[in-house]
Amino acid sequence: MEQLTQLYDANVADPYFSIEESNHDQNQGLTQSQLNKFIQKLLTTIDLSKLTELYFQQLENTLPLSELKIQFEDNRVTFGKRAKNSHSKTLNCIQMGNTVAQMNYSFTQPLSLRDWQIVQQMHINFCSPFKNALEHHKIKQFAMKDYLTSLGNRASYNETMIRLANQSQRRHQPFGLLVLDMDNFKQVNDIHGHQVGDKVLMACADTILHSLRESDFAFRFGGDEFCCLLPDADNQTNNLIAERIRSAIESHPLLQQHKISCSIGSATYQEHDSQIGIFSRADEALYTAKQAGKNCTRAA
């Protein structure tokens, strides 16, 4: 499915059809030709973010739309900005009798009968590709998670690293990387078995996650090794978050019981840096922390 997404170039700035096209009955909604062009454009991508943006662009080109909000599961995406004295309409996207998304449309003026018919036509024809894109998004998210801890996996780390590196180069803003290794974890598996070891790993992952800022990312690399990517972070921020994690791991009741601590190495992405370079520096700092007696943090 990823190959399909990459094959097509969806230019959201291009209108799919012109509302000025010949329409013999101005009291009706879109013509079949207009609808076909709209549907064909939606079929050019299965990426959820691209699809929703395409939809907003066409609505904006066609109707007096000021804002579109799409609520699905625990997520909400918003396009545009709500105007003063706006006029709102809410429509649901239904699948098998269940609401999978709710879409709130805000307009700058009251809708004519024809405009309301157009909204409903576009909404109905958007729902089917939206549901497909949502399923694709769920599958992709599942494939990017570690099965045990629900943190990101290596594939997720690589994708996030590439995105942050590109952003850093464009905006000239640093970001941080923490590489963490659990101290004394091997003895837990050896003495108590993998079932207890899994509980310890889940406790470590949960503790790491709750020690981060909302904008940060946590990943399990495998075994007892974890990584964190920290957007808009310099050396000082890295050190503060690393120490927060180390302290939280050290004081966790279950981890205390099994004498689990963690060693952390940190590095900051620099101008003209590479993804391999920053990881190598953080990994070297982790090695230094281990050599220093474990349960400590070191910066590259």
TrEMBL record:
GO terms (BP aspect): cell adhesion involved in single-species biofilm formation; negative regulation of bacterial-type flagellum-dependent cell motility
Entry's Gene Ontology molecular function annotations: diguanylate cyclase activity
Transmembrane parts of this sequence: none
Residues of the GGDEF domain: 173-300
GO cellular component terms attached to this protein's record: plasma membrane
InterPro entries linked to this entry: Diguanylate_Cyclase, GGDEF_dom, Nucleotide_cyclase, Rev_trsase/Diguanyl_cyclase
Broad EC category: transferase
EC number(s) recorded for this UniProt protein: 2.7.7.65
The protein's required cofactors: Mg(2+)
PANTHER family tied to this protein: DIGUANYLATE CYCLASE DGCN, REGULATORY COMPONENTS OF SENSORY TRANSDUCTION SYSTEM
Cited NCBIfam families: GGDEF
Protein name: diguanylate cyclase
Taxonomic lineage from the root: Bacteria, Pseudomonadati, Pseudomonadota, Gammaproteobacteria, Alteromonadales
